Amino acid sequence: MTGKTVGRRRRAVMTLLAVLCGLVLVPAQPVQAGAGVMVQPVGGRVTGVLSNRCGAVDADHYGVDIAGNSGMAIGAAYPGTVAVAGFTSGGGYLVTLNHAAGYQTRYLHMVRQPSVVVGQQVGQGQVLGYVGSTGNSTGPHLHFEIRRHGAVHDIAPAYSCGGTVTKGAPINLPFADLSPVNAIPDRFAFVNSAGVLYAKDGAYAPWQAVNAGGASKVVLGGNWIGWLQGGNFYAKDGVYAPWLALAEGGQVRDIAVSGDRFAFVNSAGVVYVKDGAYAPWRAVNSGGASRVVLGGNWIGWVEGGNFYAKNGIHAEWLTLAGGGQVRDIAVSGDRFAFVNSAGVLYAKDGAYAPWQAVNAGGASKVVLGGNWIGWLQGGNFYAKDGVYAPWVTMAAGGRVSDVALGGQDWFAFVGGGDFFAKQGPYAGWLTMAGGGQVRGVAVTS
After folding, report:
1. Distance in angstroms (rounded) separating the CA atoms of residues 173 and 144
2. Per-residue pLDDT tens for 69-79?
3. Rounded CA gap, 176 and 25, in Å?
4. Pairing relationship of beta strands 103-110 and 121-122 according to DSSP bridges
5. H or E element at residue 309
6. Is the pTM of this model over 0.90?
7. Which domains are assigned to the chain?
């Protein structure tokens, strides 16, 4: 028997023992692998990577620990189906997702009951729950695991002790047989004079009626379509999905959707928010609000003519603009904007940055999308590519009644009751819907 043969047999025996003990690690596989198709579920500092507890050794530790503030939202690393959503003595409140190609991800130590239920389909980034310290835990953090066919996936190349990760950033590992998640297509929606809501995916696709009438507002966020109808909040997860009643009772006055976060204002001005269509609603103020917007992790609302915001449902609220003069607001990522009672539009990048005046007055509505700031003024549509860029006249003539922006440089407006849109500030306008019956529009991509 040669030395090579002995070595091969020894390695085979060691591998078999590892499998029998349930501790085998699946190595990174460069062949037929999609690198970075999973994304980081939270952002924060790495305090443990597999058996390396960053100062100690624990052979029974099969994931990465990411420290964070209690209450931070946890997003799904990849689309999948909820296999477990509950509580164990060791893992605390946790979620397990089953994915394609035999992959599985686990999310442990949530602060309370998960925001999803067993059997539910979830999209990449969809909120599963919130960072906590339940179960066998010494402080708020997410314990995150990746497995394939039951074996622990070797995540060590993607994480380092003391390093930081960013929520939503690609996990720098190859994932054999997993495909990148398809981006949400360009989606357009409008409400006509009869309150019928139409939506479509793609500028040249046919319109699909979403309801039978009575809608007064439509909003788009992630894959969700939401609308206000008869004082109730309805939504559907894509053009062809069944609709859900998110808030009934005839008391809803304004609505917003961003990704898998939903918000509404009731007739008493109480703002309610939740992460996940099946999660419970949570009040974020005590009343008096007239408008709510969502952008990134931020929740913003107008109350008593002031602009308030909070960075997540469980964060403290901030007064972004006081004085009782705020008339309209918008939030996109970490960009904030508002219009005051004189129609002056202010914008800033970052909650603690100084406000910058964008116009001299006369604006009635502000919208944000991508890097663009758009506003309605004197029946015209103006926009600028960032707070300090020059402004561009997008549509003049004094007939514009509503405006919208989408993430991939889509611009839209209602003029004379017709719906126009274009991709890029210097492209030609497309007539999306004519007939003079369009009342409100929305675009996302």
Report:
1. 15
2. 888 889 999 99
3. 14
4. unpaired
5. strand 306-311
6. no
7. 19-176 (2.70.70.10), 187-444 (2.120.10.30)
